[in-house]
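If you are new to this repository, start here. Below is one unmodified record pulled from the training split, so you can see the exact layout before writing a loader.
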Amino acid sequence: MIVELRKLKDRGELSTRQLATKTGYSARSWVRYLNGRSLPPREAVQALARLGGQDPARLLVLHEIAAAQWARGRTPATPRAAPPPPGDQPTPPKPYGRWLRIAVVAQTLALVVSVSVALVLAVQLAKARSAAEGDSVDMVVGTSPDPASVLPALYTCRPERSDGRWYAGHSRTQDAIVAYGDIGPTVIEAQCLLRRADVSPGDVDGIFGPLTQRAVKRFQLRYDLTADGVIGPLTWRALRQAAPQ
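And here is the target side for that same chain:
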């Protein structure tokens, strides 16, 4: 669900401060929601879905599943019973009690597996639908936001120079193909290197959305590369050797 919310944010080209203004939830709260540190309320999910022009029903289904998992992960453990005093030996358990406990554990494991499979299938279906819908969205080209007006990125960039190349601490790839719709550490690395070259991709959130694609095209034009918005070996080489403008 977190990936879907962050895709909606990036597709709408909204900063966390703009989300706070439009939804009534603080920018700090949105940073926690989008970074997976807090479970967003249903109303926040509905508000972001409306801003992104999406039907909130699908996201609310994912929210219910995530809420169940969230509650299960925070259920306090049962306190351990104190040992019996010396000389007070417990009564040996009945034979049928052991089999009853085994049956209960087996049913619990089966329930956990079923919920996990349902959650994975729901997330995969949501990603597939979102990708299909994203292909039909028209890209609106505008000026990049002023970095000084945007809140701190969701991921930290630590550019360091090694062997004549720049690395931001998330990936050391030289030839991975990264394009629109991709997520993960290689996208974070590319966003950090774009920022270092003074070409803002928006928030460093690990999602290759419209802002990141636009920044890649501007960078490619600057270095006389094919401006297709796809990061390949030539673009990686330029990113790792580029000097800030």
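Two things worth knowing about this chain: The first strand starts at residue 160 and ends at 162. The first helix runs from residue 2 to 11.
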